From TrEMBL, chain A:
It comes from Pagothenia borchgrevinki. Residues 473-584 form the Pyridine nucleotide-disulphide oxidoreductase dimerisation domain. SUPFAM superfamilies: FAD/NAD(P)-binding domain, FAD/NAD-linked reductases, dimerisation (C-terminal) domain, Thioredoxin-like. Keywords: Disulfide bond, Electron transport, FAD, Flavoprotein, NADP, Oxidoreductase, Redox-active center, Selenocysteine, Transport. Its EC number is 1.8.1.9. Has a glutathione-disulfide oxidoreductase activity in the presence of NADPH and glutathione reductase. Reduces low molecular weight disulfides and proteins. The lineage of its organism: Eukaryota, Metazoa, Chordata, Craniata, Vertebrata. Residues 116-453 form the FAD/NAD(P)-binding domain. It holds the Pfam family Pyr_redox_dim. Signal peptide: none annotated. This is thioredoxin-disulfide reductase (NADPH).
TrEMBL record, chain B:
Pfam families: Thioredoxin. Keywords: Disulfide bond, Electron transport, Redox-active center, Transport. This is Thioredoxin, mitochondrial. PANTHER family: THIOREDOXIN, MITOCHONDRIAL. It comes from Pagothenia borchgrevinki (Bald rockcod). SUPFAM superfamilies: Thioredoxin-like (SSF52833). Belongs to the thioredoxin family. Residues 47-160 form the Thioredoxin domain. InterPro entries: Thioredoxin, Thioredoxin-like_sf, Thioredoxin_CS, Thioredoxin_domain.
Amino acid sequence: MPPIENDTGKNDLKSQIQLLIDSNQVMVFSKSYCPYCVKVKDLFKELKLEFNAMELDLIEDGTNYQDMLLEMTGQKSVPNVFINKTHVGGCDKTLQAHKDGSLQQLLCAETEAYDYDLIVIGGGSGGLACSKEAAALGKKAMVLDYVVPTPKGTTWGLGGTCVNVGCIPKKLMHQTAMLGTAIQDARKFGWEIDEKVKHNWDTMKDAVSNYIGSLNWGYRVALRDKNVNYVNAYAEFIEPHKVKATNKRGKETFYTAEKFIIATGERPRYLGIPGDKEYCITSDDLFSLPHCPGKTLVIGASYVALECGGFLAGLGLDVTVMVRSILLRGFDQEMANRAGEHMEEHGVKFLRKYVPIKVEELEAGSPGRLKVTAKSTESDEVIEGEYNTVLIAVGRDACTDKIGLDKTGVKVNPKTGKVPVSDEEQTNVPHIYAIGDILEGKWELTPVAIQAGRLLARRLYGGGKLKCDYINVPTTVFTPLEYGCCGLSEDRAIELYGQENLEVFHSLFWPLEFTVPNRDNNKCYAKIICNKLDNDRVIGFHYLGPNAGEVTQGFGTAMKCGATKEQLDNTIGIHPTCAEIFTTLEVTKSSGGDITTSGC
Amino acid sequence: MAHRLLVRRFWTLSSKDLRCLPVSSSSSFSTSLQSSRVPVLSRSLALASLRRAASFNVQDHDDFDVRVIKSELPVLVDFHAQWCGPCKILGPRLEKAVAKQSGKVTMAKVDIDDHTDLAIEYGVSAVPTVIAIRGGDVIDRFVGIKDEDELESFVSKLIGK
Ligand SMILES: Cc1cc2nc3c(=O)[nH]c(=O)nc-3n(C[C@H](O)[C@H](O)[C@H](O)COP(=O)(O)OP(=O)(O)OC[C@H]3O[C@@H](n4cnc5c(N)ncnc54)[C@H](O)[C@@H]3O)c2cc1C
């Protein structure tokens, strides 16, 4: 690595070093082989102090660092120790400072000066869980939560995505749709219901909103009762230990803390085509839409797209889903396609291999009329369609770009905006942690964010050792025919273990509840993927059928316990249920055997 | 003097924003400024009903201070929310119980979503929560629904009957 000649390079380096000094309570510039360095690091370990050591011999431009440190401190040798932004010096000076107590003083001065032990940015699933836990462990904790309104002006209360515009309203509206199916089935079971059954969007929307209102209040009260200081303001770092909080009236307040947890979650992505923000809505708007959406185009094939399209169709609306390539990316593709086929059979139209290019308003109203122009991904074909509502559900972006992370040095994946963390949810800046949807390569699920947040607080403040386990996380997609899974998709399992080392057991089944109404025969499907090299351990669990969440939850525990095919076979089923199918799986995929069902 | 000031304040507020007038005939607790559910009553009618009304919607912390804490009369504070079903049943019953005491007690209605800080300050965990305040002090409270007889004795106790 050549020495840096130009000023910009030098200034960059200088600010990089300054950032390290500013953001670490104890910063040691060190060399891995240097015995004096080892000595000071041992001292800090003995004092149980968190420190950041940069080994200059192990990084590419270490000599440049050393030159710059000389310029900044007049000291060329290592270790070069900083405590609370103050230059302490080398090994002797540090040991001396420890002896005469000045080291302790340096350490205390700053910790006491922070307003809070912990500030959590984002009051969603993860943020609330960890701030409450930290406060319960006696720490002075603050949560900053603020909802930036959607382009349509929709906004909501405390609790984050899941409560307000995610899991909760989604599942309740899914339930609304399921009840519609139940009413149809009911006739076959002898219930005499008027031929014309109508659904009232406003009644559903108000009931859902009211329930959410009560949850928002519950969260607020819980924060008060647990002694977490809550501020309804948008937070942004302005220094490694300091945030600026702007409330809805634009008033700015500043808070400092020893540690930070970022839990800002994600927001729906827009398409970046003409008319998207003006005329389209996202899931952030749908659940509180003041009018029935009418004929709807759903753009995207994410689980949010399929769930929303599914329940809207279940309410009796005309629904089209526009898909660029595949359904449910990242999920088992066989299952995804089966769930999609079921939707298609129940009236949802799919426009496959199209991408929208513009959205125009034909007529304003509630709902109005929109024209969508789309083009094929395979040819020059351009199509047009008219809808009352266009719902964009093409993915979500992490809220990490407008929170001043550059002021802290926290690294973010520049492509995805996601934050890489250690297995203890620590970012590259030691006093800043991150949890929930913004994490790179982790699950975007409420219980995962909650678990990670709670365990993190226990590790930080309660002597906890347990880390969040991101393996074998069970989950469910609430499509009209629900899809529950845990562990690996078949596609991923083949990639990891090779087809020859896997045995896949599968079966179609017909829920007893479906027999009398005589619907959806041989649509429900169960599949497990077993690792032949490891005792036929179940490494993938997949279920397409009613109550998928309820069915999958317990098998998630079984997989955590390392369940094998033999153990499933030895389990006695509960009859008559859907879940019992997993105790009697016999046909392997490789055998090509018949998996259609016939009676009990 | 204090009393006159108070009355003036009451009038200015009310005539400034008709939409915030209490609607004696409706059980709706909507205090939201955007709410269009309150029919635009003829002004004189609205003002007339106001003169009779023993209850009012709290506007903000200062308003609470003047009309509740510094009130010469005992005040029942009804902490309620628009999303709360039981609140919609209790509200009219409370109004009735207060009206029966012909001017010996007033009733302040606080929407906990609009005035979260007040609700948090007064330890409200669930709605409806009703707090009885006399001379600025909380002297009684209950959470949940009560029937008309129970409410009557609650109010009587407050005015020292
Ligand atoms: C339609 C939909 C359906 C879903 N269904 C399910 C489901 O069925 N099951 C499931 O497990 N998960 C579901 N999820 C996912 C789940 O909602 C998320 O995984 C979960 O909410 C993530 O929690 P979090 O704490 O990371 O962030 P969030 O819950 O998103 O909370 C982040 C909070 O931080 C706030 N914030 C952001 N930036 C700032 C800032 N700078 N200052 C202050 N506050 C800020 C946000 O406004 C938000 O309130 C669903 C999501 C969607 C969109």
